[in-house]
Automatic annotation (TrEMBL):
Residues 173-361 form the CCDC144C-like coiled-coil domain. This is CCDC144C-like coiled-coil domain-containing protein. Keywords: Coiled coil. Residues 97-275 form a coiled coil. The keyword Ubl conjugation does not apply. Residues 41-83 are annotated as: Disordered. Residues 41-54 have a biased composition (Basic and acidic residues). InterPro entries: Ankyrin_repeat_domain, CC144C-like_CC_dom.
Amino acid sequence: FFNKMHFKRNVFICRCTFKQENEEKINVNMLYKKNREELNRKEKQHKKEAEAKQPEPTVQSLEMKPKTARSTPNQDFHTHEETEDLMDENCILKTDIAILRQEILTMKNDNLEKENEYLKDIKIVKERNAALEKSIKLNEEITKTAFQDQQELKDLKAENKRLNSELLKKKESNTERNLKLTLQNTQDISVQEKMSSDISEVEDKNEFLTEQLSKTQIKFNTLKYKFPKTRDTLRTKPLDLETLQNDLSQTQQQIKEMKEMYQNAEGKVSNSTGEWNCVEERICQLQRENLCLEQQLDDDHQKEDHKERVINIQRGSIESGKKDLLLQEKNKKLMNDCDHLKESLFRYEREKEERVVSIKEEKYFQTSRKKM
């Protein structure tokens, strides 16, 4: 601010001096013209006076008169006196003319000296004016550049402010996204734990069912093996028939219970597959969010014009890169879990088909027994 005031004061002083010198220049030119006109006027006046007082033709005529008087000695004496008076007057006029010419020469010399001085002064004034004009132009250029620099500084400050606000907004949005991702990760972990617990329960029940099926199959095979013998002994032992019927009803009850347990296991498997579909959808959503974050990071890198912004964005990109690595690791874990779940589901489907085949075989044997 002080430099600006000092600069304005210097410009004002230069303008005042330039104005004063212009006024002096105008005054000098006017004085020069006035003196020139006065000198010309006096010169014309002296010429007119000299022409009016010039007695040469009369003197010559008077000089001719004595010759005629000599030739005519009878002329009057008064003419001689008049000629002498005219000669004296002519000498006086000649001396006056010489004095006037000398005065005119001195005035001309004085005017030439004054004119030279005036020309020198005018030259000096012109040089000063040129220097002042140069200084004024320089000052105007300096003011213009200073104004442009101030405007650029204001624009840079506004741009810096805008970039800082954008960075703050992006930081806030990144923190919100990170919170959402952490919450989603915790939810995914809880869902994975629940799924793993459900799958473990289903596997335990499947193992129990396979054991029960193997036991019933062994029992059915033994009954099948005993059936021809019991058919022979039915005629002799009615009590054994009742026991066999009881055993058969027990096996049928066990088969019914196994069917119910199998249906419950199928329901749990369908629930686990639904949860698995939810997990897959969640994984796709996380991948889409990761792609959006990567796109935003690319956009942020393309807009890096300011140094502070570059540093902040590099830090943010490092942090987001770490977060992306963590998300990629989590996605890998989820994909591995998905593969394990798919393998377990495939195993379960295969066991399910085997159980269906074994149950169909049992039904076939039961129907064949009833027919027998």
